[in-house]
Amino acid sequence: MASSEPNAALARGRREAWWKIRLFRGMANDVRRRAPFYLSDWVDAWDYRVVPATIYMYFANILPALAFSLDMFTKTHMQYGVNEVLLASVLGAVVFSVLACQPLVIVGVTGPITVFNYTVYDIISPRGTNYLAFMCWISLWSLVFHWLLAVTNACNGLRYVTRFPCDIFGFYVAFIYLQKGIQVLSRLGDAEPFYLSIFIGLSVFVVAYICGEIGRGSLFKHPVRVFLKDYGTPLTVIFFTGFVHIGRMRNVSLEVLPTGIAFEPTDGTRSWLVRFWDISVGDVFLAIPFAVLLTILFYFDHNVSSLIAQGTEFPLRKPAGFHWDIFLLGLTTGVAGILGLPFPNGLIPQAPFHTESLCATELVKDSSDDGDDDDAAAAAAATGLPSAGGSGSGVDDEGGEFKGHPRNTVHARVTHVVEQRVSNLAQGLLTLGTMSGPLLVVIHLIPQAVLAGLFFVMGIQALEGNGITAKILFLVRDVSLTSRSHPLKNLPRGQWPIWGFVAVELVGFGATFAITQTVAAVGFPVFILLLIPVRAWLLPRFFLSQELAVLDGPTASPFTMESVGGNYGEPKEDPLGGGPDASQGRPGAGGLFGSGMATVVPCENPSAINLRSRSREDLAELGESSDGRGPVVIEMQPTAVSPARTGIHNRRGQAGSSGGGGMGRTH
Amino acid sequence: MASSEPNAALARGRREAWWKIRLFRGMANDVRRRAPFYLSDWVDAWDYRVVPATIYMYFANILPALAFSLDMFTKTHMQYGVNEVLLASVLGAVVFSVLACQPLVIVGVTGPITVFNYTVYDIISPRGTNYLAFMCWISLWSLVFHWLLAVTNACNGLRYVTRFPCDIFGFYVAFIYLQKGIQVLSRLGDAEPFYLSIFIGLSVFVVAYICGEIGRGSLFKHPVRVFLKDYGTPLTVIFFTGFVHIGRMRNVSLEVLPTGIAFEPTDGTRSWLVRFWDISVGDVFLAIPFAVLLTILFYFDHNVSSLIAQGTEFPLRKPAGFHWDIFLLGLTTGVAGILGLPFPNGLIPQAPFHTESLCATELVKDSSDDGDDDDAAAAAAATGLPSAGGSGSGVDDEGGEFKGHPRNTVHARVTHVVEQRVSNLAQGLLTLGTMSGPLLVVIHLIPQAVLAGLFFVMGIQALEGNGITAKILFLVRDVSLTSRSHPLKNLPRGQWPIWGFVAVELVGFGATFAITQTVAAVGFPVFILLLIPVRAWLLPRFFLSQELAVLDGPTASPFTMESVGGNYGEPKEDPLGGGPDASQGRPGAGGLFGSGMATVVPCENPSAINLRSRSREDLAELGESSDGRGPVVIEMQPTAVSPARTGIHNRRGQAGSSGGGGMGRTH
């Protein structure tokens, strides 16, 4: 409560030394900024978009939750099951939808936390320790650490979280998904059920994937496409759950998802309240290092989920609040521990999907070709380097994404996001209803093979949207078939920096993934955390600032980052020598984990891309950006991009004019 | 031998009444035209392209042959097996490579002939008749009928074979493939081998399909892409043949491809010479109706294969000769019958693949955007209807074909085709070598599931290239996402003619496919043949000529059609009111069975399409074209199209100037 006016506080903060931590300032400012919108968060829910968003999020949330529950059920010997996972989702949904500063963020059980849970189980249970009591103590210590982070404004560190660690984390999570899918299948023996399960798992993947592709393509009318994209995966799960009962498959008995009794813990012998006092004092303190690791994981994972759910592609009008939400996350972690639930935190990709599903759109006629060509020329000019030829003939399409939309005649423009708390709360209550007897019976019918297929879908979709994947695809692409104006093609030192950057990313991923295969798996959050200083202090020694500007980018816009004091390394002077354009920063909209590079990916239409580099007053408190190193911001104006994938229209003119200086038309 | 000069003969033929058949004239003219090139057909083979073409064709030919041999082995109770199918391929290759007027046409055992063979088996074997002797008599009668067709210049009827019956036939063949793949799998019981086989079959399909997609995309350097496209399928077969022996799959014994003794007939009790005298006289004459059906099938199938292998997308310089080749086909049919082999005929898609693999290319820099836009404007103008807007902003990409090549900076241009006889002969001799003991042992390792996957690959690839598929995709595409200048979008009566035309095509396909499921399957060639008069006389009553001009098109260019007296319905006056452009006719290059509509399909780049309608002196002898009804010719200049898929550069200026009159630039 240091200041009566947040902006004044921010301005004053810049003048202060970084080590003078003003306790509670972040949380207080978050609440101050958000409180005026609280009533509107409920009133604004009176909008049709809330209905499909709720139904969509229910399925998008519960299906992975079921897959994770199967994974934990097996690996923790029934300590966690479907009911625990569902109740954790309900807990997260209720607390965050009602109390959070960022109610759009969907909270639930993630892949990394399941890895954490069963690794702790592997370490602790041979000691004879009561597992759930130990987990409870982890949660209680973690609650303390979360609150310490919240009170000391530790989320200000988010300014260093660029796309680089996010991409590596996303890549890691994707491979965890794929591995889990294979593990589910490989547990099924070697007889008929095994091979039938492989067939079913692959079929679920292929069908759900094709539904997603159609949703992004140009086949069928817009409502059909949206329906397939939104409900393709649930319908695929339902279909294949029934499919295995036809023909000669009827005679094969498949392993199904184990479920318990309605509203009861999976381990029938305990009550919801964990007997956390039933543990030795030594084990209570042994829980501290685990709690530290958990806190690191949640600090990173939850905040990144929040950042991406409030990415620049969404025209949000209500302020973010990271400090307050990390405080809430400590609360839910503690409660979950006491109830013996896996700890919920921010979900990727569900959180950004939620924001996307709340986007209200309007149909807009495309501008004429002349205007489009102008933009393409601007795109070429924005790289700041002499174009290889006189032609602004376009920007590489990166392998056919949005392949159906090369030349739209109309497109959907996002006018606003229905920012409210009801859809998050409602999907949580639906999940609570799923814990009732009849629905548990239905869930019990789902073959494990279908859930394996679901893991494959999640893994491949996460890989597709990843910035590392995008860079690798660029590198293996035939160089004669990529556009001359592609930013990655105009680096002064050629392709080697890209190879180097991707190599660093893959080493980071490989180390994290490798440790997950050992009993030290519980330490993987440390690896993720280490990536942030690697990016901030190590990489600038080997890469030029303009290379890093193209290879990396900020995760969220200054509007969202206001809660944490702005972005890291916003350059005072544009390192690529762009014009006097001063529009707002726009990082990648290419995918959930897309890098800055990915911003130029999804647009097949050269007219759709509006690359602008611009200078902007540096908000960072630490003065790191004065060396001019740091991500350049690539603005994307996705006029022809499928709204199904990216959202999206950006906020124009929110922080400056959008006129491009010195961007002549080249043809 | 009616005339000493073919062109003079042709000119004279136009003045004669159609019923005055000049016997032997077609054959004689074919030989006269081709003979001067015979020596060069061997000398020209001194070219590197012949080596990869030979290896590629060997695999492209033998893998489907093995799949068909499995099918016939099962359904004719070992009368036909691997050795018979291989020897039939060898027979066709040797005879046609050495003697044919069209040595590029690959001849072997096709899907339709396997249907014919086992249907005859189902009809004849319950009567106690010696099956192979009966087949021999069919072949001998058919030899007579083929020679009658050749002598009476019956191939002149090919001018009526537009894309309409070809598309339906191709659609039919594709579904036969898919059905055969399912049949192979469904014969494998319901235990572990069954489900493992489904998994393997689907995996073969997916991996081979992805290899093909990469071959057409922009990932990897050009040589890698070409390698994957050419050898992806054989390598997939080899990989999965080994794959089933690793891990826990080792314990599952899979059904493999049955093979016999090297160079011996599969039925070990007989010699290669069929005891065709060992049959009742009644059965000899019963063979006549079957021989008629076989002749109809071959007349259509072989000639269509030849037409497509010499499509307009290939810049051929040596003349075609349909009459002579149908005479040769009678010969090989008779010989195959006497040896107890399935009868070989022209193979789709292998024949056009062969021509494609012999294309020599050079790298060309793209022209400037201005020129490209001109072409796009010409494309819009060529529809002859007022454009909906002032923008020539491009032509619909039809669902992402060639998705990796939207804006090339360089492209490969086909300079010429290495027209020679050696690659066809060599791949035939390689096939002969495969009948030796060691290689038969290798072939015996291939699981049936892998061959099922091969059927799926062939079926889906055939469907993808089909003109019916292209039209259906256009119809289900979101109308707001297709280009205003798409020819199908500018029909005066809207979309209904397209629905109607597709409905007629699907009814034709459905009737043919339905009869194949019955014991009357042997009659399916009649349905295919009936489609030709339906197109020529029935459809013009319901469709406007300009609709048919867009919905249908000729199969081959006038250069190829010179052997049969030119194309049907080449309009004297362009029905769409094009300019005085008199360039040569160019039908669809969109796929193996692509319709005229498909010509505009593969070009994502608006600059790549050069649509020109033009008037041309009518060569048809029958005067049918004077009513102005008939296919308009759509010229395609695929400057930016992947050479991997279409070939291809067309012959410019071979029959006139290529200047477009009245084609203003619209933006």
Question: Could you tell me the radius of gyration of chain A in angstroms?
Answer: 24 Å
The strand order across the widest sheet of chain A is 1-2
Q: Helix coverage percent of residues of chain A?
A: 40-55%
**Largest sheet, strands/sense/barrel of chain A:** 2 strands, antiparallel
Q: Estimate the mean pLDDT confidence of chain A.
A: 76
| Stretches with pLDDT under 50, minimum 5 residues of chain A | 1-6, 8-13, 368-408, 571-667
Give the distance, in angstroms, between the N- and C-terminal Cα atoms of chain A.
Answer: 57 Å
Largest interface: A-B, 54 and 54 residues
> What overall geometry of chain A do the principal axes of the alpha carbons give?
globular
Count of helix runs of chain A:
23
Order of helices and strands of chain A: HHHHHEHHHHHHHEHEHEHHHHHHHHH
**Percent of residues in β-strands of chain A:** under 5%
Question: Which structural category do the helix and sheet elements of chain A fall into?
Answer: mainly alpha
Identify the quaternary structure here: homodimer
Give the beta-strand count of chain A: 4
Membrane topology (chains A, B): Multi-pass membrane protein
Pfam families (chains A, B): HCO3_cotransp
Keywords (chains A, B): Membrane, Transmembrane, Transmembrane helix
Subcellular location (chains A, B): Membrane
